[in-house]
Amino acid sequence: MLWDKDYLRRTVRYYANIYDHIDTDAAARRIRSGIWFRGPNVWILAFSIVIASVGLNVNSTAVIIGAMLISPLMGPIIGLGLALGTNDVDLLKQAFKNLLVMVLISLAASTLFFLLSPLNLTNPTELEARTSPTIYDVLIALFGGLAGILENSRKERGTAIAGVAIATALMPPLCTAGYGLSCLSAHFFFGAMYLFIINMVFITLATYVMVKYLRFKTVAGLDPALTTKRRRLISTLVAVVVIPSLFSAVVLVRDNNFEQNVNAFVTENRLLSRSYIYDYHIYKDHGRKVEILLTGEPMSYETQTAFFASALAHGLKSDQIVIKEHSLGMTDAEMNQMVRDIYDRTEADLAKKEAQLDHVQQRLDSLTRLVESLVVDPEIPIAPTGK
After folding, report:
1. CB-neighbour burial class of residue 343 (10 A; exposed 0-12, middle 13-18, buried 19+)
2. DSSP letters along 141-163, please?
3. 289 near 315, Cβ under 8 Å?
4. Do the beta carbons of residue 32 and residue 92 sit within 8 Å?
5. Cα 200–chain centre separation
6. Residue 84's closest CA among 188, 289, 234?
7. Which long-range contacts (CB under 8 A, 24 or more apart) does 350-353 make?
8. How far is it, in rounded angstroms, from Cα 58 to Cα 114?
């Protein structure tokens, strides 16, 4: 019974059927009403821009998530997909116009914020994370868009829209692009705008596909030539967006593999005869390389041979390794300079400690005098009170 084909088919249809749970007419009305950029949406957009910019500026993931939840950018993008799927030219124009206005306002507001912000992070990880999109971001946008249009189409709507807003993250890339404009950084601006375009295109594509699948009512029919032209345009746009993301994904995977190989190699070869690897640095700007910092006695020929053989076993080529040895046998000038540096640092630390001790002693003396003034001397008679 369990392996009967008809039974399995009926079971799959029972659980996977979505037509009994959707209302395309109500969904179309909700999507159309969500594309308009006026009234509350203007203020909500402004608030979300500030929140996202602050979150990116202070590297706060929680604050960035809050901005994603309240951002109204999803409305016009889903509206584009609905317009393409239902052949609604007027809706397409309105959705694109409102999306363009929202993008320009977001860029202007975030640029102004970062120009005025006094905080400059030395390691802006949240900003940097929005500059190198990959094929994984394409998948997130695609399946996020599918979930978004399905949630909009359900008769009983749940909380999936909030999750889609967080997953696709439309607002942070625009704020990151604003940061790039504020500091005139092409890396931040174009990288972040590419991520936003990926999200926009694939949310629109997912909406278009689902609108066709759910059989939303079309406004007007298109002649076959125009339909073919539209499909070619969509295919070209998807290819233009996807191909660079595939390249970025390959680079990301290779960089990750290289880091794992370096970590395993260094862990295995931390102690080399009478030498020791005390640190290492990985560089990816001009080819993947690792700088190995050694201390102790210089490596012998046999040690070097075993060292590079181990590196090759971990997938590291000899031209990817730069060795910097810091021998313990220093010249007199180097020894004197090291002693002077240690003496200067020690003197500075001692002076700082003495200043702290003096401050503590002054506070202690002040508190002691205060306590003495409050404590009554038992030998001094207390004047009687009353009659």
Report:
1. exposed
2. HHHHHHHHHHHHHBSS--SHHHH
3. no
4. no
5. 17
6. 234
7. none
8. 11
User: 192 near 174, Cβ under 8 Å?
Assistant: yes
| Those residues with Cβ within 8 angstroms of residue 257's Cβ, 6 or more apart along the chain or in another chain | 315
Cα(45)–Cα(51) distance, integer angstroms: 10
What domains can you pick out in the chain, each with its CATH number?
A: 15-221 (1.20.1080)
Contact criterion met (CB below 8 Å) for 299 and 269:
no
Model's pTM, two decimal places?
0.67
DSSP string, 76-131: HHHHHHHHHHHT-HHHHHHHHHHHHHHHHHHHHHHHHHHHH-----SS-HHHHTTS
Whole-number Å distance between alpha carbons of 69 and 166: 6
User: CA 215, 216, 217, 221 torsion: positive or negative?
Assistant: negative
- The whole-angstrom separation of Cα 308 and Cα 301 is 11
| Side chain identity, residue 332 | D
The residue whose two tokens read 């404009």 is 181
Answer yes or no: are the C-beta atoms of 168 and 205 closer than 8 Å: no
- Which contiguous run of DSSP H or E holds residue 341? helix 332-374
The Cα 53–Cα 186 span in angstroms is 18
Query: In sequence order, which residues have a C-beta less than 8 Å from that of residue 180 and are 6 or more positions away?
Result: 186, 187, 188, 189, 190, 191, 192
Contacts of 31 (CB under 8 A, 6+ apart): 75, 78, 79, 82, 152
Q: Name the nearest CA neighbour of 271 among 244, 316, 306, 320.
A: 306
Q: Which of 137, 131, 143 minimizes the C-alpha distance to 169?
A: 137
> Distance between CA 73 and CA 79 in Å, rounded?
10
Q: What is the mean pLDDT of each run of 10 residues along the chain (387 residues)?
A: 70 78 85 81 84 84 80 85 85 89 89 84 74 81 85 72 65 89 90 88 88 83 70 76 78 84 87 78 82 81 86 88 71 56 70 79 72 54 46
CA distances (Å), 62 to each of 52, 67, 109, 123, 293, in order? 10, 9, 21, 18, 38
